[in-house]
Design a protein that fits this description.
Layout: H1 26-38, E1 50-56, E2 62-68, E3 71-73, E4 76-82, H2 86-93, E5 96-103, E6 108-118, H3 121-130, H4 133-141, H5 153-164, E7 176-190, E8 198-203, E9 212-216
Antiparallel strand pairs: 1-2, 1-5, 3-4, 4-7, 5-6, 6-7, 7-8, 8-9
Helix pairs in contact: 4-5
Length: 218
């Protein structure tokens, strides 16, 4: 029998978080959790690097979508997209963003708030060159977030670009590249029985490099 939405629930029993076992730097804990995910063989459809990116605009609107984490540096998280897309325009106007990772197989979530900046052209060039040719063509041809004139517009544009660069490398378009989210808040959530979840929040201000660590009520 199909359950009603209000009856959909499961018990979280994977583990817990202990304050004195947590590292001083939140990126170190994130890397530990992410390394564990990478060590396990999941179904092909599951993307461990999928994350929700939330943006806003000066008028108070907000929007969330799934993007893919494509790199980590000591101070932030990298992803790549079209600078002229809806999210690109929103980040240009309001660089305060949020990221969210959800890994249900371990009853874990990570919530991140920070500032987004563009990566260097060299980093964008390197990543673009590593992409499959079909993805490169798509990045060049797609006027991301804009209304298409007809259903064949993209197919035609991609074929024309493929012909133009036949036998040649495809250059990265100027309106496509990387972003880095530099966090000032990172919250780690570990599901536990009876909804008494462990929540620890790392936070720092612009005036200090040290992270403060607080336990939050579930």
């Amino acid at each position: 029998m199909q359950l009603s939405i209000q009856d959909l629930r499961r018990n979280y029993t994977y583990g817990g978080l202990i304050r004195n076992e947590l590292p001083l730097e939140p990126m170190h804990l994130f890397q530990q959790w992410f390394s564990l995910l990478q060590s396990i063989e999941f179904p092909e459809w599951f993307e461990v690097n999928a994350m929700t990116l939330s943006t806003s605009d000066p008028e108070g609107g907000s929007c969330s979508r799934i993007v893919l984490l494509k790199g980590m540096e000591s101070d932030g998280f990298l992803f790549f997209t079209n600078y002229n897309s809806a999210k690109g325009r929103e980040m240009a106007m309001e660089p305060k963003v949020a990221l969210h990772f959800f890994w249900p197989m371990f009853d874990r979530q990570v919530r991140i708030e920070g500032l987004v900046v563009k990566t260097s052209p060299a980093i964008s060039d390197e990543y673009f060159a590593s992409r499959p040719r079909s993805s490169q063509l798509g990045a060049c041809a797609s006027p991301q977030s804009q209304i298409l004139l007809d259903d064949l517009q993209l197919d035609i544009a991609i074929q024309e670009l493929d012909n133009k660069y036949a036998g040649q490398p495809i250059p990265r378009p100027d309106n496509w590249g990387g972003y880095k989210v530099i966090p000032h808040l990172m919250e780690f959530w570990q599901g536990k029985p009876s909804r008494l979840h462990d929540r620890f929040r790392y936070e720092r201000t612009a005036s200090t490099e040290a992270w403060s660590l607080h336990r939050l009520a579930p």
